[in-house]
Write a structure and sequence with these properties.
2 domains, about 325 residues, about 20% helix, Fumarylacetoacetate hydrolase, domain 2, 7 helices, 6-stranded mixed sheet, SH3 type barrels, alpha+beta
């Protein structure tokens, strides 16, 4: 890939409005201001539905291939001219979810063998009937939907809902859909992906299995979609700058103690296969997100859960680290 690698993010200054940024090293450069500085005769502009002052990452996804090329030119221009319009150190900013208002958020259940095994041991699979043991040839991806409204920033506090005792972690990699499509073949799935993000599928195990309706098993809404149960970011890393999304470490620690240490090479179903499966059911739209499965080491496996004051750090190789503190519900 020609050109300097960059990341994209959505940030806010203290008491300020969110803005999209190009991130170079640890510096966030205001995207709209950089775009205005770059504009000139013969230079292609970013293609969005909004005017330049309102640029956001979601605006860029609809014409992602063209916009990515322009973003590369903007970065080259800034480097040549020595410009950093609206620049701030990332550490001085409040990181928001890179994509503020995604469409559908697909999550892969039990997509690492270690996680399949630990959930079997923990009794999260029925004691009777066939058990999924990770054998790919006899099954399809298992996906569920999580509410986009439960997104949180990479460093936001997360409230533990009142009365719940079994709040769990699931470190994961996510991808953002750029090009809409239906019945997308796995071998072409990455043509529909803009980039990759770090995320966490925070879960309420108290509620994930309904004691009052045991025959229905998992209650995905109650177990997964509480407010701020989907921290994401701080960056969207363009697909072109992730050489192999199937060789990235996924790590999570709680209060400094490592709990999860896996690798995307351990996926049972690849992100491409998940995209093929989901798009065979319903059309994928610009701004949809796939969260591709967690590795072994979740709290349910050892009956260890998050408490008020705990700090959870989630990292995917090359995509950035999140640091979320758990607090009591206000």
């Amino acid at each position: 890939m020609n050109g300097r690698a960059f990341k994209l993010g959505t940030f806010a200054k203290p008491d300020g409005k969110p803005f999209a940024a190009i991130v170079l090293d640890e510096t966030a450069i205001h995207l709209a201001q950089a775009h205005e500085a770059y504009r000139g005769p013969g230079r292609p502009a970013l293609r969005t539905a909004a005017s330049s002052p309102g640029l956001n990452i979601q605006d860029l996804l609809g014409d992602w291939d063209e916009n990515f090329s322009v973003l590369q030119e903007i970065v080259a221009f800034l480097d040549k001219e020595g410009l950093k319009p609206g620049a701030s150190n990332v550490a001085d900013l409040h990181a928001r979810p890179p994509i503020a208002h995604p469409g559908k958020m697909f999550y892969a259940a039990q997509n690492f063998q270690e996680h399949v095994d630990e959930m079997l041991r923990a009794g999260m699979t029925p004691a009777t009937g066939p058990k999924f043991t990770g054998e790919k040839s006899t099954s399809d991806p298992y996906l569920f939907l999580k509410a986009p409204s439960c997104l949180a920033g990479a460093n936001d506090d997360i409230e533990i809902p009142r009365g719940l005792k079994k709040i769990d972690w699931e470190a994961e990699i996510a991808c953002a859909i750029s090009k809409r499509g239906k019945r997308i073949k796995a071998e072409r799935a990455l043509d529909h992906v803009a980039g990759w993000m770090t995320t966490n599928d925070v879960s309420a195990r108290d509620l994930q299995i309904r004691a009052d309706r045991p025959g229905l098993r998992s209650d995905w809404l109650n177990g997964k979609s509480h407010d701020r149960f989907a921290p994401m970011g701080p960056y969207l890393v363009p697909r072109a700058f992730v050489p192999d999304h199937m060789k990235l470490f996924i790590r999570l620690s709680v209060n400094g103690a490592v709990k999860q240490n896996g690798n995307t090479s351990q996926f049972i179903f690849t992100p491409e296969e998940q995209i093929e499966y989901a798009s065979g059911i319903l059309s994928l739209e610009t701004g949809d997100i796939f969260v591709c499965g967690t590795c072994g080491g979740v709290g349910q496996g050892t009956n260890t859960f998050l408490n008020v004051g705990d700090v959870m750090e989630t990292e995917v190789e090359g995509l950035g680290k999140m640091r979320n503190k758990f607090v009591a519900e206000a």
